[in-house]
Design brief:
The chain is an all-alpha fold. The chain is 73% helix and 0% strand.
């Protein structure tokens, strides 16, 4: 694919993520306008609004997979990995604000579960290292971290990613008690 075509597709996917996050019924013409491309450009690549939406979900999951590989796969200290993941996760959620938690598409759900399992493996490693509490209900740590990241990313846009990540990790590890 030509470089300009690749840039156009990326612009369309990012614009679609923003549009669908605020208006789940946004039209392809609206997405094209937000991306600064002709709607024919979108229709040449995507047969329907649903195809475009699935492509947005796949792009978000691609970014998440890259973030997991970059932050959890090495031997850096647990807290450092959590900080890097939180900062990247906040940026990712702001760049790709669509919510994939309730997506019905089986392939998207399966991939999301695979990535959740990888994050959960890292959190078990954190538990074994004594960084987070042992014996919590299954996926409690994962859902708590995801919820905090989502909240900061979507509901507190004034917080910059680095200090927001530090706040998330501090709260995740120590709570909000005095």
């Amino acid at each position: 694919m030509r470089a300009d075509a690749t840039r156009n597709i990326q612009a369309v996917l990012r614009a679609a993520a923003r549009m669908f996050a605020t208006d789940p019924l946004a039209r392809i013409a609206d997405v094209a306008e937000a991306a600064g491309v002709d709607k024919r450009t979108v229709y040449r690549r995507f047969d329907s609004r649903e195809d475009l939406l699935l492509a947005v979900y796949r792009a978000r999951l691609d970014e998440l997979e890259s973030l997991i590989e970059a932050t959890f796969a090495d031997d850096r200290p647990i807290r450092d990995a959590l900080l890097a993941f939180a900062e990247g996760g906040i940026r990712l959620s702001r760049d790709w604000p669509v919510d994939i938690r309730a997506v019905a598409d089986p392939a998207i759900r399966e991939r999301r579960e695979e990535l959740d399992a990888r994050m959960d493996d890292f959190l078990r490693r954190a538990e074994q290292a004594g960084v987070i509490a042992a014996g919590l209900p299954a996926r409690w740590s994962l859902r708590t971290l995801q919820t905090q990241l989502h909240t900061v990313a979507q509901e507190m846009p004034a917080l910059q990613p680095r200090p927001a990540a530090a706040l998330v990790v501090e709260t995740f590890l120590h709570g909000v008690g005095a």
